[in-house]
Design goal:
- The protein is mostly helical.
- It has four helices and no strands.
- Helix 1 runs antiparallel to helix 2, helix 1 runs antiparallel to helix 4 and helix 2 runs antiparallel to helix 3.
- The longest helix has 22 residues.
- The radius of gyration is 15 Å and the shape is globular.
- The protein starts with a helix and ends in a 12-residue tail after the last helix.
Length: 93
Amino acid sequence: MNDQDLKFLILFILAIANDAIDILGLFNPIAEVFLDLSVAVMINLLLGFNVWSFIITFIDIIPGIDLAPIWTLYILKLYLQKGGKKSYTVKVE
């Protein structure tokens, strides 16, 4: 596992935990906003500055939107965009 894979593993764990807390409604909305901001800060610390992480934080504040796994989908998008795992193809001759 290389350094980039480790960073994405950490971000996936944070995103899944954050989305689970949002869906279950375990904290009050103010605490959820701080949790969303902490995920956005972690994205920026691990992957470099990304304004979309803060835009998603403000979108996630809207009631009803936090039922979707926004953070997990966003981290998946970043992972696939950065290359992720390369798929292997077999050449048939």
